Amino acid sequence: MDHNYTVTIIICILCMLTLAIDVGKNTILNKSDIKWFRFSFILAAVGAACEYFGVLFDRTGCASPRVHWFVTYAEFCVSPVLAVFLARSCGRKRTIKPMLIVMAVNVVLQTVSLFNGMIFFVDENSVFQRGGQYWIYLLFCGISFVYILAVFIYIGIKTNLRNFIAIILIASIMIVGQTANILNGSINSGYLSICVTATLLYIFIQNMFRHMMMEKISIEKNIASHDALTKVMSRNSFDSKVGELDRRINEDPSQVKFAICECDLNNLKIVNDTFGHDSGDTYIINCCKLICDIFKHSPVFRIGGDEFVAILQSDDFDNIEFIKRSVMSTCFDEATKTASLAEKKSFAAGFAVFDRDHDTSFGDVMKRADLEMYNNKRMLKNL
After folding, report:
1. Of the four listed, 9, 225, 299, 353, which is most buried by Cβ atoms within 10 Å?
2. How confident is the model at residue 299 (pLDDT cuts 50, 70, 90)?
3. DSSP for 178-210, written as a single string
4. Whole-angstrom distance between the N-terminal and C-terminal Cα of the chain?
5. How far is residue 111's CA from residue 336's CA, in Å, rounded to a whole number?
6. What value does the CA radius of gyration of the chain take, rounded to a whole number of Å?
7. Cα distance between residue 20 and residue 42, in whole Å
């Protein structure tokens, strides 16, 4: 008996049993997938043990033909169905029942072969022999290979082909190992390839689900951080930015430079009441676009229904006087434009610059911007 083969099979069985025990721990898989992965690992361990004992009995004749026959029968039943279990472990549900029915037919035929030896038999010397209809077993193995390859391709497409090469290589490991064993019974690579495939597939699926989860979390964070109507930063993002600036002010106000422009839309209630809320939403979006066009290098936040705040830093902070003149000019032009209220993009604005000698928080700056904004609003209303 080849000692290298013995050690290889023992390692495979131990790996499968270890994964079967560990699969439910520190995993992001759901309970159903965990269960099917556990079944797959246990089945792979059983199949590897059956393959090993079949080879052992064949080469040493240390077991009765009846025992050898039963071990080979178990291996032939388990081998094709493993692909179905692995596919279900990957989350494939729709095709599982038809495939399990197909594999059940294989089990029935293998059972019939126990009595007539049409697929395989064990002679009086306890040596395995292929039967006249051995092609039946090859057929079911072929169906199994094609199915698992199709499942792996589906998974590759599902991940937008980012890991397509990796998943095809994983499938190839199983197909090459099984094919070599089927074509030449002396090449005992069947369950080695299955165990390696199961291990790599488990790691791949874990990583795939983790990546999908991170993408979902990223999308949800993006949704939470942006206003649904205008797509600018939301109130939550504004609160986070205020907290960040307050921390920096507390740590070292001399290193903090920023200014605020608070914008409040004019006549939104009248537009809503006169033209309807759809027109009101369009009015908000158009005003927001105008504000964003002015503050191209600064984050703009929607902190209320008709209230926006731009926090000026870097280039916009250095050019605040120019920007302020541009904003005030725009406010005047829109307020005096000959058009219906719904067609205007009218808003009032107020500026304030952080003063490290007097301001102790973001709120102190915001109060001054708020006061200037209301003064500007009163002036625009008088127009």
Report:
1. 9
2. very high
3. HHHHHH-TT---HHHHHHHHHHHHHHHHHHHHH
4. 101
5. 92
6. 35
7. 6
